[in-house]
Design goal:
Blueprint (H helix, E strand, L loop, with lengths): L1 H9 L1 E2 L1 H13 L4 H19 L8 E6 L3 H15 L3 E5 L7 H12 L4 E2 L10 E5 L11 H12 L4 E4 L21 E5 L2 E2 L8 H4 L1 E5 L5 H8 L5 E3 L2 H6 L16 E5 L6 H13 L4 E7 L3 H7 L4 E5 L23 E4 L8 H7 L6 E3 L1 H10 L1 H5 L6 E3 L3 H7 L10 H12 L2 E4 L5 E3 L5 E3 L12 H16 L6 H23 L6 H6 L1 H6 L2
Parallel strand pairs: 1-8, 2-3, 2-5, 3-4, 5-6, 6-7, 7-9, 10-19, 11-12, 11-14, 12-13, 14-15, 15-16, 16-17
Antiparallel strand pairs: 17-18, 18-19
Helix pairs in contact: 2-8, 3-4, 4-5, 10-17, 13-15, 17-18
The structure holds ligand NPW, adenosine-5'-diphosphate and potassium ion.
The site of ligand NPW has 28 residues, from helix 2, helix 3 and helix 4.
Length: 517
Amino acid sequence: MQDRQEKISQVVVTAAQMRDIEQQIFAAGMPVVALMEKVAGLIARRVQDLIPPTPLKKRVGILVGPGHNGGDALVVARELYFRGYEIWIYSPFEKLKELTTQHLQYAQSLGIPCYSAIEELPDCDFLIDGLFGFGLERTITDAIATAINELNERNQPIFSIDLPSGIHTDTGEVLGTAIRATHTFCLGLWKLAFLQDQALDYFGKVELIDFDIPLADVQAVLGEVPKIKRITKVTALSTLPLPRPPVTHKYKEGHLLLVCGSRRYAGGAILTGLGARASGVGMLSIAVPESLKYLLVSHLPEALIIGCPETETGAISQLQLPEKTDLSSFSAIAIGPGLTKDSTPIVQAVMKSPEPLLLDADALNILAQLGTIPTLQQRQAATVLTPHTGEFQRLFPDIADVKADKIKAVQAAASQCGATILLKGARTAISNPQGAVWINPESTPALARGGSGDVLTGLLGGLLAQAATKQIPIEDIVATAAWWHSQAGILAAQERTELGVDAFTLTQYLMPVLKQI
Ligand SMILES: NC(=O)C1=CN([C@@H]2O[C@H](COP(=O)(O)OP(=O)(O)OC[C@H]3O[C@@H](n4cnc5c(N)ncnc54)[C@H](OP(=O)(O)O)[C@@H]3O)[C@@H](O)[C@H]2O)[C@@H](O)CC1
Ligand SMILES: Nc1ncnc2c1ncn2[C@@H]1O[C@H](COP(=O)(O)OP(=O)(O)O)[C@@H](O)[C@H]1O
Ligand SMILES: [K+]
C-alpha cells in the first residue's frame, strides 16, 4: 500500500499518457460514470474539509466546461448542494459531452440556478473551476477568455479541478488566458504542467486526489521505469551515504576537489566549501587563488586549501596541485563558483579528470566559449552541468526556447552533449544523456538569491565524491542534492520567512533537514 502510494507520487504524465491510462481502466470494465462519481466525490469532500458549509451558508459558483472536467464540476455542485451550500452554475457552452449534459440536467432539476452569461453569476464565497482539464489543446478565445479574465479579477478563492483552465497539461503554457487558482486538485496522477516553471503562478496550493488508479495500468502505459519522475523524500534519501559503515576512513568517504573563487568573488568559494562540508565528504580540498588561501582556511579549517598562481585580475591561472597529487587523486571535482572568465586554462585542465566532474557558473561560461559539445567529447568519465537558464542558453544556443518546455530542453541538451544536466529554476529538472529525467517538485522562491547555487555545487560535489565507489546512477545523486538543497531552503524560510534565507544561512539548514527525518 505504502509502496503504491510512493510509486504513484513519483509518476508524472502527459495528457496523452493520462488518456491512455484512463482507457486501460475503462477497457477493464470500470464504467466512466462510476469513475466520475468517485473522483468528484473525493473533490467534494476535500472542499468541505477546507471550507465547511456552516455556520454561514456558503455561496459557491461552479464553472462548467463542455467536457468531462465540466462533468466533474457538476457532480461536485450536486454534492455540495445536498450538504447545504448555496450553488450557482455558470455554463456558457451550447454543446456539452453526453455525461456532462446529463449532470447539468439533473442539477437544474434540483432547482440550482444556471447562467450562460458571466455577468449573471453573482459574487460567491468561492468558485469551482471545471471549464477545461487535460482535454484542452486549443487557445481559449472570445467570450470564454473574457469570462476567465473577469473571474480572475473578482479575487474570490478558486478551486481548479485537475488543472487551472487554460493551462496546457504538458508544457504549462497559458493557452490565451487561464484561471488563477488558489488551490488545484490534480486528479489521479501528477500532470507535467505542475512541474513547469511557466505555469506555477496559476496553481495556488496543489494537491493530488488519488483515486486508486491501479499501478499495473500506469506501468502498462509508462513502462516499469518511467522516463520522467518526481523526486520524493524516499528517492532522495535512498542515495545518501547513510548510515556510514562503522569501519571506514576519511579517504573511503570520498575526496572532493573544489576549484573556485577569485579576488573579485571570494565569497563564492566559501559558500561552495560550506555546501561541501554539509555533504559529509571524507576529505575536502579547495583550490583558490593564492591570495585567498588564508581567508578560506579561516572559514573551513578542516579543508586542505591549495593556493594557486593567479592572473593580474586575481583569478586562478594554473591549477598547482600539491606534490604526489594529480587529478586522479580526487573522487570527484567541482569547478566554477566565483572563478571569473579568466580561468579558461583551468577548465581545460580539469576536463582530463578520470573521475566525475561538475561544472557550474563561470566554468559553464568558459565551456560555452570553448564549444560545449567538442569540449565535452574529451571526457572519459561522467560530467554534470548545473546551469541556470541564462547559462543554459549560452551552452546550447541551438535548443529552442527553454522557457516553452524546460523538460524537453534539458533532455535535448543532455542527449547532445553526453553530460547529466541540472537545469535550475523554481522546478529544477535533471536529465541524463538517455533522457531519464528527475524533477524537483517542491522548492521556495527564498532561494532566488545570489550564492544559493554555489551552495548546491558544493553539496552535490560532496555527494558525487562519496558515491564514487558505489553503483548509483549519477542523475540519482544529482536529484538527491537538488532535493536536499531545496528542503533546506523550505525549512529556513519556514523559520525565518522567505526574506531570511541568504546563502550562508542556507548552508546552516542543510543538516537540520536530515535531522528532521
Ligand atoms: N482521466 C481520468 O481518469 C479522469 C478524467 N476526468 C475528468 O475529465 C477531464 C478530461 O475530460 P475531457 O477529455 O472531456 O476534456 P476537458 O478537459 O473537459 O475539455 C475538453 C473539451 O473542451 C473543448 N475545448 C478544447 N479547447 C477549447 C477551446 N479553446 N475553446 C472551447 N472549447 C474547447 C473540447 O472540444 P473539442 O476540442 O472537441 O471541440 C472538449 O469538449 C479531466 O481533466 C478530468 O477533470 C474525471 O472525470 C474522471 C477521471
Ligand atoms: N523561484 C525559485 N524557486 C525555487 N528555487 C529557486 C528559485 N529561483 C532560484 N532557485 C534556486 O536557487 C539556486 C540559484 O542558483 P544560481 O542561479 O546558480 O545562483 P548563484 O549563481 O547566485 O549561486 C538554484 O538552485 C535554483 O534552482
Ligand atoms: K479546470
